[in-house]
Please model this.
Amino acid sequence: MASLLLGLAVWGFVIEPDRLVVHEVRLALPRWPMELAGLRIAVLADIHAGAPHIGLDKIEQIAATVDQARPDIVILLGDYVVGFRSTGFGHTIPPEDTARVLASLRAPLGVFAILGNHDWWFDGERVRRAFRTAGIVVLENEAVSVTRDGQALWLAGLADLWTRRPDVIGALRGVPDGAPAIVLTHSPDVFPDVPARVALTLAGHTHGGQLRLPLIGRPVVPSRYGQRYAAGHVVEDGRHLFVTTGIGTSIIPIRIGVPPEIAVLTIAGADVTARSARAGFR
Model:
């Protein structure tokens, strides 16, 4: 028993948190335009620079790995810093340094970010300024559009749920009816308020619970909905959510069964997927 516990401790505190997995996911979304079929979105969340295993060298590795995946667009979903030191784990990495490394990310349609609760606990205005100075677009309750093959795609970034006031309706106000739109939120708990006209909601924050145990599942998830929005692709009433399990750790620097991930989503319309399946493609 002692050997088993020691092995789990080594895996959870030393090995798993230091891994980096590229999670390739194909999503079939209803009413997704043909011009945007095959769009590749790299999603990063909860880097927590300064947490154990997350130094600038690891962030450089993350950026290089994202570039190798050749995404069309990169989405950063908040918590770039360690927002408190009460647990005694981690150290401070200035957000300017993190932003400088992430500014090396390359994608044809750009790099877009929102802020998370740890960013605001640290100094949200400073984090936002650092990222904008580095050339990264930071959104808060506002939407911007990008265009591929003449088709506009709208990105609506929300304020953090824990520390600010997310305004879903306000963020979508300038998005034309029927236009493809993706909502960016740090916490997935806003998902029930996202209207059906949004093609996809992207979230982080949960870290996938950091622990996923046999029979038990994820004992602790920082969400009022428990394990409902803990990780991965969720479909409710025809609306689509993807929650990335993120990269760093918070409070306790442990991961078991939930490796740090870069999520790379390839988006296709439901009709395209159906035709491919009928034709014998997988």
Summary: The chain has one domain: 2-278. Confidence is low (pLDDT under 50) at residues 272-282.
